[in-house]
Structure formats: C-alpha cells, structure tokens
Amino acid sequence: MYFIGTRGKERVKGAEAIVKGIAEDGGLFVPESFPAVSFEELGNMLGMDYPERVAYLLAKFFDEYDREELTSALREGFSRFETEDPVPLVRMDEGLYLLELFHGPTCSEKDLGFAALPYLLEKGRGLSGIEEKLLLPVATSGDTGKAALESFKDADWARLAVFFPEEGVSKMQKFWLCTQEGENLDVVAVRGSFDDCQFGVKRMMGSEKCKKALLRKGYVFSSVNSMNIARTVASSAAFFSAYCDLVSSEQISMGEKVDFAVAAGNFGDALACDYAARMGLPVGKIVCGSNRNGSLSDFFKTGNLDTKRQLFRTMSPALDLSSPSDLERLLFEVSGRDAALTEERMDALSATGKLSVRAEERKALSERYFAGSVSEDDTVECMYEFFMEYGYPTDTQTGVAMSVTERYLKKQEDDHAEARPVVVLCTASPYKYPQDVLYALTGNDVKDSFKGVKRIHLLTAMKVPEPIKAVRYKPIRFKASVSPDKMFDAVVKFLG
Ligand SMILES: *Cc1c(COP(=O)(O)O)cnc(C)c1O
Questions:
Q1: In DSSP terms, which residues pair with 283 in a beta bridge?
Q2: Tell me: the pLDDT tens digits for 226-285?
Q3: Ligand 1 centroid vs 183 CA: distance in angstroms?
Q4: Closest listed residue to residue 19, CA positions, set 202, 228, 226
Q5: Mutate which of 269, 297, 328, 437 to test ligand 1's pocket (most atoms within 8 Å of Cβ)?
Q6: Ligand 1 mutation target, pool 227, 266, 320, most atoms within 8 A of CB
Q7: How far apart are the C-alpha atoms of 335 and 120, rounded to whole Å?
C-alpha cells in the first residue's frame, strides 16, 4: 500500500512513510485509501489475542513487513505489560465501559503505539535503504516522551532527544523523564508550552540546514510523535479490540454501533477511532474531551481553529495545547482529500494562528463528533463522583473525557436519542498524576508525589504499578533547559 502526504506532494511505500515520519513539504502521511475490515474479518479477530489483532491491522497497511515477524515483535513489546491482556475492557455500568490503556511499562496509552515501533523503524530503515542512523526528536507533554525513551533506550541505530515543557508536566512525569537510563538519549526541558515543543520539532525536521547538519554527523531525522502514521494505525487497533471484546462477551451483537470517548490532546486517539470507522468498524459518535484549553472543542462548534489564545496550565497536561497535530489528517479527509486546500489551511494556521472549514464540512464533522470543554472544577467533581459511585480512581485526562461523556449522555437523553454503549478510554494510571488525583478524591494537597501515591493506594486499594515504585530512588540525570528557538542547538550538542 502507498501513503500520500496531506499537502499533496509525496507518494511513498509504508516503510518509507514510517521512517520519514513527516512528508517533505511538512504534511503528514495518510494511507492512499482505507483498507476495509469486513464483519467476517471482525468475526475472525474475536479469536485473536491483542498482539495478533494489532499485527492483523498493521499488515493491511504496511504490507512490505513480514506478518510473522511483526506479530512476534508485538508479542515481545506487549510482554512488558503488567496484565495478560494489554487492553482490558471493564464494564462499569449498563452501557458504560472503560478501556484500560495504562498497563504498559510507562503507565499510559502511549505504550500501546510504541510496542512495535522500534521494530517498524529499524526494519523500515533496511527496507528503504537508509544507511544513516535515526535521530528522533520527540515533543512530549509527559507521556509520549517516557514511552519513547523506554522503548528505544540503547538501540544502537537511533538516538532520541526528548523535549518537554518545563512547567507543563506533572512532577511525577518530570521526575520520571529526568531519571531515564540509557546512553542513546537526551532529555531537555523547554522554557515554553507543549505547542512550542511540537512546533520546534516540526521546524527542525523541515529545515534543510538542520537536515544537512545531521547528515554530516551520519544521522537523518525520523519521528515517533503521533505524526508517524504507524502510531495512528496501531492506536486504531485498540478500538477494534474493544469492539471485539464487547461482541465476545455478548454485550453487543456484531454490527451494532458503539460510541467511543477520548480525552483529546494532539487528536491522535480520536483520529485513530475515525480511521477505524473508515475501515468499517461500527462507530457511533466519537466524544472528544478538552479541558479549559478548548481550541479543539471550539473548532468542532464553530468550524474555526484559533490557536492564538492564552494557554492555561491544568491538571491534565496531555491536553494543554492549542494546535493539535493530527487535526491536519482530519482536515484532509473532511475536505474530500483536497491536498491543495489542506495546504492552504495549514499555511493560514502557521501565518495567522487560525484556520477555518466550510459550513458543510463542519456539519459533516458534527455527525461523527461530539466535543466539549470542561473546567477544572467539573473535572475534579466528576473524578470524585466516579470514584464514589464505582470505587474507580481515574487519571485527570480520563476525568476530562468522563466529564464530557456525562454531558454527551445527558444530551442524548434530552434528545430522546437511541442509547448506544459507550467505551471511555482510560489513558493513564492515576499514579502518574498523584497530587491532582489525590486532591480530586479527597480535597487534600500533598507536596510529595510519592506520598500522594501512597495515599491513593490506601484510599483506593488500586495496585501501584511496578515502574512507579521503581523510579523513586533513581538519580536525576537530565537538568538542561533551553528556550524554544534553541532546541536544535541542544540536539547538536547531544550528538557531539
Ligand atoms: C496523549 C494522551 C492523551 C491524548 O491523546 P491524543 O492522542 O494526544 O489526543 C490523553 N490522555 C493521556 C494520559 C495521554 O498521555
């Protein structure tokens, strides 16, 4: 299968799309067409375990890779998860399910996409005849960076430079990033927002000067951020898998529509769900939760994305951004795959910080999406009530998703709409945000993250993940911070 850039100038095979990460013109790679997954195939997937389900879907897109090899790479990746099923579906109530995506080595949903990524990149390098080593600049609001560091540490064909917003991650996340072990990696705080980090990464990847400087040292850029199409496809597997589990456990019958709710940051998970629907998964609505940084929910409401707004620091750092990267792929689809128009819109976004879609496009989007933005107070209250009702502590991002889901369900009821089962993605362990979670559940503040962990454990009896226990006594290795315009200088220094 071939992949094309959203801005129209490129067409490459899957391995090349994976290794390049981003198209030459700054666009994102998307599949030339969506492979279909029939109900019969879905039926076959019921009998597969998770690694097989992911391999099955990846193989539909990336047909140069050997399926057996891919499956064993995924098996190995998922063997590092704490649960036998990497993505358990938990029934909370009639028609309400949680899809737990936090059982991986770094306790967030990002681990799912990273299970096979080292294999896909290393093999893809060979398949596309690239001899240079890969330099992976990673922008993170906390979770992607840690997942990337753990899955690529000590690979001798790649080096990672992880950039996180100095003030924009939880204390636990920062501690976790800065104590990372491994010789092929660097972790740098950026004096700016996550948008600055992401923009900085895209800018260096698009700069001829930076590319040349890397080449002189024997490296080419690649990316493991959600701009990498392999991550989108791998994420879509979680939705297929949840659907299969609902059918297997006779909660629904094959073909029945299911709604999915996600906390939307860079829009990666929501887009993966959209892709699953385009492949034929019976998806009803995609519910997208934003915190008070609601540029995305405003976009769905008005058709205008406005990124020139004040960015607030919240309890849900994965959602603290105003320019969601994967929205470009949605814009491409909703425009009827009009690359020229997509490019025009992305140019407008970089020139003015704004872009707009037409009224009929906005209407088409509203048939698939329900988006909302919630305040910090709403989120805290929702997390508290959810815990009181079900004894289940969620992380703060999932609190946002849940809060918007409640709003959605209320609207469905008011509209006398047909009720569909809802699956809410539980995207991180509450222990990654111990202070805010403890505050939501008890109203108490603690200064020390590990004290927060202990108290949440005493209160909820939820198991503390091993990696959280292990990090406590590790020394801080990375202390550097740079301004956003000096990110590439940090890379050069790191490469030596
Ligand atoms: C990354 C992340 C999200 C948001 O996912 P996107 O794909 O960026 O929209 C939500 N919750 C957590 C905990 C995350 O790490």
A1: 258
A2: 999 999 999 999 999 999 999 999 999 999 999 999 999 999 999 999 999 999 999 999
A3: 27
A4: 228
A5: 269
A6: 266
A7: 30
